[in-house]
Write a structure and sequence with these properties.
Elements lengths: L5 E7 L3 E8 L5 E8 L10 E2 L1 H15 L5 E8 L5 E3 L9 E2 L7 H11 L1 H8 L8 H11 L1 H6 L2 E3 L1 H10 L3 E3 H4 L5 E2 L4 E2 L1 H4 L13 E3 L6 E2 L2 H7 L6 E2 L3 E2 H9 L7 E4 L3 E4 L14 E4 L5 E7 L3 H11 L13 E3 L16 E3 L7 H25 L12 E4 L6 H11 L3 E4 L4 H15 L3 H8 L4 E4 L6 H13 L5
Parallel strand pairs: 1-5, 5-14, 5-15, 9-12, 16-22, 22-23
Antiparallel strand pairs: 1-2, 2-3, 4-7, 6-8, 10-11, 13-14, 16-17, 17-19, 18-19, 20-21, 23-24
Length: 479
């Protein structure tokens, strides 16, 4: 490693692929690139052609202008998506994305088949409609010809990593969100793969690499296509939440909230978790530890939609008063209500649209804040540090209203890191570790990835949380 050595971190998210090019020595982001994806579908369907991800990666790398200077690259991606490849290694249909809720009946049937406790014990999670295993079950039921033509099943980050290297590999973090890989056991579960609704051969799945094991090097023809130097080292990649935790060097027990298309709350734990209620998913992380996490489908996009409906700015809010909004516009995962729609209550003749908008923020944040307590209760989780600041990341973290609502509903100090694109930064940390062999904590410390603004705690708004909880109970939607 010398001064000026560069690595690239990739974040293939729901809406776009982003690339950051980072100086290994200083942690300075020297270049960035971004290209969007098209998400299609209605009535619960959410799909994207995986070839768009590849084209977006090519465009985003070209936009950085530093491709030939990159020594190593890693890809972090949206979790759970189902990519089906034919015998030629190409996608045979658009990928089913994590927020595609059509597999809700299949999730229910799979849970009934084994029971929630067994699912949690075997895979760390009770599979909601977002998980890969439920999407594969949906595909078997609705498109048997597609299943028959499928030679390989991949996650979004697996697809890109394999295109880079030619080798079918994944990592334990992203694999733990499929529903057929066990964080506690460290392997694919043959009893789940053999279920009649699944019927998947483990040979069609990628090899799960050890943390920080190299996935290989970029193939010469691909290097030419992407404008990279030959023999660029490729990291194993991981899921987006695992990459964010890695980029932050998140301490065990320190809670983090990510505000993006989805909302997530997670922490790092030394032991695997298993929550039969389904609120907490017991993922693995990218370092060899674990990442208990709760996720909501409706976060920044849902709140922005409310602002668009009223034609007001996203931070043009007033105290919500009696108004409660459950912004479950695309169904919901926490609570597990894949077929739910939005609820607005407490309206008066005098209600201001700005009150409704703030109530949408509060409804989006409440489930995440309550999930912190659920994570803390999990046996083997190691607890959640009650004194540690809540780390706020994702696109919403830059918004003043998001910061205010998270601070008010949590009652915690809130740390907002200065670093942008922490998922891509985490992928860059992984690429650095794979290339140099340094401990990841040393890389994150040198890069000062967690430096940022610390917001003082304010009294927790228990009255607001109680109003939201009461409406969920009344609507029959309590987690």
């Amino acid at each position: 490693m010398t001064g000026g050595d560069l690595v690239a971190g990739v974040d293939c998210s729901t809406q776009a692929t982003k690339v950051v090019v980072v100086d290994v020595g200083s942690g300075e982001v020297v270049a960035t690139g971004r290209a969007g994806h098209e998400v299609t579908g209605e009535n619960g369907a959410r799909e994207t052609d995986p070839e768009q991800w590849w084209g977006a990666l090519r465009t985003a790398l070209a936009e950085t202008g530093r491709g030939h200077d990159i020594r190593a690259i890693s890809v972090a991606g949206q979790q759970h998506g189902l990519v089906t490849l034919g015998s030629d290694g190409r996608p045979i249909r658009p990928a089913l994305l994590w927020n595609d809720t059509r597999s809700a009946p299949d999730a229910a049937a799979l849970i009934e088949r084994l029971g929630a406790v067994t699912w949690a014990e075997r895979t760390g999670s009770v599979p909601p409609a977002s998980f890969t295993v439920t999407k594969w079950a949906w595909l078997r039921r609705n498109e048997p010809a597609t299943v028959d033509a499928t030679s390989a099943v991949r996650l979004p980050h697996d697809f890109l990593t394999e295109r880079l290297t030619g080798d079918a590999v994944t990592d334990r973090g992203d694999a733990s969100g499929t529903g057929w890989w066990s964080p506690a056991g460290g392997g694919y579960d043959p009893s789940i793969l053999g279920l009649d609704r699944v019927g998947l051969d483990a040979a069609s799945l990628p090899t799960v690499l050890a943390p920080f094991a190299a996935a290989g090097t970029v193939r010469p023809a691909v290097a030419d296509e992407l404008g990279l130097s030959p023999e660029v080292v490729v990291g194993p990649g991981t899921g987006d939440n695992m990459a964010a935790a890695l980029g932050l060097d998140l301490a065990p027990g320190q809670p983090a909230v990510s505000l993006g298309t989805s909302g997530t709350v997670f922490t790092v734990a030394p032991r695997p978790t298993a929550d039969p209620s389904g609120v907490v998913t017991g993922f693995a992380d990218a370092t060899g530890r674990y990442l208990p996490l709760a996720c909501t489908l409706n976060c920044t996009l849902a709140v922005d939609q409310v602002a668009r409906w009223f034609g007001i700015g996203r931070d043009d809010v007033r105290p919500s008063g009696e108004v409660v909004v459950l912004p479950y516009f695309d169904g919901e995962r926490t609570p597990n209500l894949p077929n739910a729609s939005g609820t607005v209550t407490g309206l008066r003749m005098s209600t201001d649209p700005r009150q409704v908008l703030l109530a949408a923020y509060e409804g989006a944040v409440a489930s995440l804040i309550e999930a912190i307590d659920t994570i803390a209760e999990q046996t083997g989780c190691g607890g959640v540090d009650g004194a540690a600041p809540l780390v706020l990341v994702g696109g919403g973290a830059a918004g003043s209203t998001w910061r205010e609502v998270v601070g008010r509903l949590s009652g915690r100090p809130v740390l907002v890191p200065d670093a942008d694109e922490l998922t891509a930064i985490g992928a860059a940390v992984q690429a650095t570790v794979v290339w140099t062999g340094e401990p990841p904590a040393e890389v994150a410390k040198r890069w000062q990835t967690a430096a940022g603004t610390l917001l003082d705690p304010v009294p927790r708004d228990d009255a607001c949380l109680a109003r939201i909880r009461a409406i969920r109970d009344r609507e029959g939607t309590a987690p």
